[in-house]
Write a structure and sequence with these properties.
The complex is a heterodimer of chains A (388) and B (480). By secondary structure, chain A is mostly helical. Helix content of chain A is 69%, strand content 0%. Chain A starts with a helix and ends in a 7-residue tail after the last helix. Chain B has 480 residues and is an alpha/beta fold. Chain B has helices at 2-47, 50-55, 75-83, 103-110, 154-164, 183-193, 227-249, 265-270, 281-295, 318-339, 349-364, 366-382, 388-416, 422-455, and strands at 62-68, 90-97, 113-115, 129-135, 143-148, 169-174, 178-179, 198-207, 212-214, 217-220, 260-264, 301-312, 476-477. A 10-stranded mixed beta sheet of chain B has the order 3-4-5-2-1-6-11-8-12-7, sandwiched between helices. A 3-stranded antiparallel beta sheet of chain B has the order 10-9-13. In chain B, helix 7 (227-249) packs across helix 13 (388-416). Chain B is globular. The chains are: A mainly alpha (388), B alpha/beta (480). Chains A and B meet through helix 1, helix 2, helix 8, helix 12 and helix 19 of A and helix 1, helix 2, helix 6, helix 13 and helix 14 of B.
């Protein structure tokens, strides 16, 4: 009863404008915040509702539009060229009227069309990818992208760079060089990527110009560009595989050396092993293994004892990968004499990798060892475990 | 005595007011921070194309590790769904943690498992590993099943999985969780794209309770029909989208959920792995990882992404919910009794000056402050000392502000994910209005019970989450 009376009287009191002046400041602040919060609740609810309704309509519109565009693209770029011929349209020319009818001046339409074209280029190669590019040019879609390259908004600039990059269209190299020093990291990333892709000469020259660390993501993208790049010769990696460079760039250069089987880089990699950066040292040793650098084996074995544990493991793995079999005894000795589980495991894996050269050693070890050693050998020998 | 009590409660009122204002100021800041964080994430996602990770031969390998204890109902479909993740290089490690049902038998039969001689090494502690299986089916060559003695907790099972894992990163999840197909791509991105060394990442978790699941894949997202899971859904959105994303902006995330988190294996092992004796093993792990990084003077970051990638079954009965929250309460208390020395220690930078003090004052102490506040309120009413108009204004202030903040969290969430239909979202918004009245007091009481249990070192066990199970033959709605 008293609670009810209290609440009732206070509602009356709160409603009275005369009481407001008598309230302490903190109550006034709380009251004002409450009013703001209540208004916020109404606005937030309306926003959630309206946002969802609007985005639902937009999504539906986009879905229909994407389906129409997809249909047009299938007919225009994927359909058999012979069918195109029958229709009387020359193979290298496109009937752009159906696309223009979509209303390319509408930002949404352009965005969806470009995104579909990029998808087609991602998923098709050869003549279809080439026709997609030609259609993009025939529709003059590149014009807006080229204008956007000079806009102030960094996101617009990055989108333009990406779009042209995906469509395999060059951008003024001087401007790209300028963008390589932009304060936005994404602009710098894409400017570098475009330059590496479109530079006619030695793409490694551009890697040499990079002075800042690059993220792993960027190194993935650069690596993909190198993988897909045609008609180029990889120059010497000298100056790139060097302890003086940023480790992220050296790491990328090592991966490129391995991918392009650049045996001329072996000496540079051996020199890199002296770096105090353990992660980089491990990567260098791993690269020697992947390159099958037989001439590095003796050096690796000679430094083995003085190296930290993680580097010793890398050396053992590298000896297995090189597959010369010259240091089979060394591996066997490490496997038997070491008390460290990981050393044993890596030595065992290396011995198995040397098969068939190590067949006799494996048989000997299988019959002479017990318990943990047997278990490790069986582990390394099991194709089910190593199927990954 | 009465005069003393009156004075005490008078002062306490002022303290609570200051406390409340402080926490609301922090919430307002977190709301702003989370918005900025979400916008940055959305921008980055537009720029960074996931195809790069799929195509790149350099993408790092990831081990998905999950413990399974008596999970025969869902295990097959969920493992299948894990094996179908969209990522170029990963393995799935299922740790059968001494199940007493047919979990292991089902796995062996379904995935053509065969026992292998595996050189298992205890890099970090786990209960005894008895057998290890690999699939003879080439389609499941990346599946590894560990059969171990029951360790009594998830931490022990995950440790066993870490010991057997092959890759530098691992995803810690629960076997009953439904994961988005792109979970690995999304969670690995901060590791490879951040300027600092990222040691852990996490994403938003949601309730799967009323969703439609087809063969371990989420077919349609629905807001839980029952009150308890619906409240938990709201709590999760607030905590992940607003809290974690807000802290993400200033690199102050205290915890990556045990339901879904990706970790740098090297740091986890160097920090000693998960602690099986901890009731809050996820927060404890992150504390130790952060401590290790700071002790060794390495810069690091813990990142969260706003995308909902994991759908988990939340407790739908009060009994299970109470058990879960009491355990969480114990875990939080345990964390602070272990790491209190890190607080205000200059060596621990952000962790020592912001993360731990915030969590101590506004997470650990909150239930206590609130409980005493309620006692104070009752006393003042009973003594007829209450100023009703003021009390009502304060109540309106607290209530309206908390509703507003939660609705903003839902709004931010809608910017990222639109898997719910409009009707479902509005239903969720309605639950927001009753959540502070029904759900919040329960959470407070259970947390206090956890503190008391921990203080008196009461015996406790993890308990098993009673699952309703996903009947998978066709699209069947799971109503918990």
């Amino acid at each position: 009863m008293w609670l009810h009376k209290g609440v009732f009287s206070s509602v009356l009191l709160l409603a009275s404008p005369y009481a407001w002046n008598a309230y302490p400041v903190f109550i006034k602040i709380c009251f004002i915040i409450s009013v703001i919060a209540v208004s916020g609740i109404v606005i937030a609810m309306l926003n959630i509702y309206l946002w969802r309704i609007i985005s639902k309509r937009k999504e539906e519109k986009k879905k229909h539009l994407a389906a129409d565009i997809n249909q047009l693209l299938l007919l225009t770029v994927v359909m058999e060229p012979s069918m195109q011929k029958d229709s009387g349209t020359p193979m290298e020319k496109f009937d752009t009227r159906p696309f223009l009818k979509l209303g390319l001046q509408d930002k949404d339409v352009r965005t969806i069309l470009v995104s579909e074209l990029i998808n087609y280029r991602n998923y098709f190669s050869g003549s279809i990818a080439d026709r997609v590019r030609k259609l993009y040019l025939a529709l003059s879609l590149d014009k807006e992208a080229r204008i956007n390259l000079y806009k102030n908004n960094w996101e617009v600039k990055v989108n333009a760079l990406t779009e042209l990059f995906k469509m395999n269209l060059e951008v003024d190299h001087d401007y790209l060089r300028q963008l390589m020093h932009d304060k936005n990291r994404y602009i710098r990333d894409f400017a570098r990527l475009s330059l590496i892709k479109f530079t006619k000469g030695d793409p490694l020259k551009l890697l040499r110009e990079i002075t800042e660390p690059i993220s792993q993501w960027e190194s993935f993208e650069i690596f993909l560009v190198f993988q897909q790049k045609q008609y180029f010769t990889l120059s010497s990696l000298e100056g790139l595989i060097s302890p003086d460079r940023d480790p992220s760039l050296v790491s990328l250069s090592l991966k490129l050396a391995v991918y392009f089987k650049d045996l001329s880089a072996v000496k540079l990699i051996i020199d890199l092993i002296q770096t105090p950066d353990l992660k980089l040292r491990a990567e260098a040793i791993s690269s020697l293994g992947k390159l099958g650098a037989v001439n590095a084996e003796a050096y690796l074995v000679s430094i083995y004892k003085e190296q930290p544990h993680s580097i010793q493991l890398e050396i053992l793995t590298a000896l297995g990968r090189i597959q010369s079999g010259r240091y089979l005894d060394f591996l066997e000795n490490e496997f038997i004499s070491s008390s460290d589980f990981e050393i044993k495991k890596h030595a065992s894996d290396a011995i198995i990798k040397l098969h068939p050269l190590s067949e006799e050693t494996i048989d000997k070890l299988l019959s002479n060892t017990k318990a943990l050693d047997q278990r490790i050998l069986s582990h390394s020998l099991n194709p089910l475990i190593n199927a990954l | 005595m009465k005069q003393f009590l009156n004075q005490f409660f008078e002062s306490y009122q002022n303290l609570v007011f200051v406390y409340c204002c402080a926490i609301y100021t922090i919430y307002a800041m977190l709301t702003l921070f989370s918005y900025l964080s979400i916008v940055a994430n959305m921008r980055r996602n537009r720029i960074r194309e996931k195809l790069v990770m799929i195509q790149s031969p350099l993408s790092p390998g990831i081990s998905i590790i999950t413990g399974a204890f008596n999970e025969e109902l869902n295990i097959i479909h969920n493992v299948r769904s894990l094996l179908n993740m969209n990522y170029p290089l990963f393995e799935v490690i299922i740790v059968n943690d001494g199940s007493t049902d047919k979990t292991l038998e089902k796995l062996i039969q379904e995935f053509e498992l065969t026992e292998v001689t595996f050189a298992y090494h205890y890099f970090i502690h786990s209960a005894e590993v008895q057998r290890i299986f690999k699939s003879e089916n080439p389609a499941c060559s990346n599946l590894l099943v560990i059969d171990k003695a029951n360790g009594g907790c998830k931490a022990d099972a995950i440790n066993a999985g870490i010991n057997a894992s092959s890759y530098p990163y691992f995803l810690n999840t629960d076997v009953d969780c439904i994961l988005d197909n792109d979970t690995l791509i999304q969670l690995i991105q901060p590791f490879v794209d951040d300027e600092k060394r990222v040691i852990a990442t996490g994403a938003t978790l949601r309730m799967v309770n009323s969703c439609i699941v087809d063969s371990g894949v989420l077919a349609e997202a629905k807001v839980p029909r029952q009150l308890l899971p619906a409240f938990q859904e709201i709590e999760y959105i607030r905590s992940f989208v607003l809290g974690k994303m807000g802290w993400n902006l200033i690199n102050g995330i205290p915890n990556v959920s045990g339901g879904l988190g990706m970790f740098d294996k090297e740091i986890v092992i160097k920090a000693g792995g998960y602690d099986p004796s901890s009731f809050g093993e996820d927060m404890d792990m992150l504390m130790r990882m952060s401590k290790y990084m700071l002790d060794t003077k390495q810069e690091y970051a813990i990142r969260y992404i706003p995308q909902s990638l994991c759908w988990t079954e939340g407790p739908s009965t009060l009994k299970v919910f109470k058990r879960q929250r009491v355990r969480w309460g114990r875990g939080l208390y345990q964390i602070f009794s272990t790491y209190y020395k890190l607080m205000f220690n200059p060596k621990y930078k952000m962790l020592g000056w912001v993360v731990l003090p915030y969590n101590f004052i506004f997470e650990l102490c909150a239930p206590l402050v609130e409980f005493l506040g309620i006692i104070c309120y009752i006393y003042l009413i009973a003594s007829d000392l209450i100023n009703w108009p003021f009390a009502l204004v304060l109540l309106l202030f607290v209530y309206s502000f908390s509703i507003f903040i939660t609705l903003l969290a839902i709004l931010w969430d809608q910017l990222v994910i639109r898997r719910y239909r409009v009707k479902e979202v509005l239903k969720l918004c309605l639950f927001v209005f009753i959540e502070p009245i029904i759900y919040h007091p329960m959470v407070m009481i259970f947390a206090l019970m956890g503190y008391i249990n921990q203080f008196f070192k009461a015996k406790s066990h993890w308990g098993h989450m009673e699952r309703k199970g996903f009947t998978q033959a066709s699209k069947i709605e799971i109503i918990s």
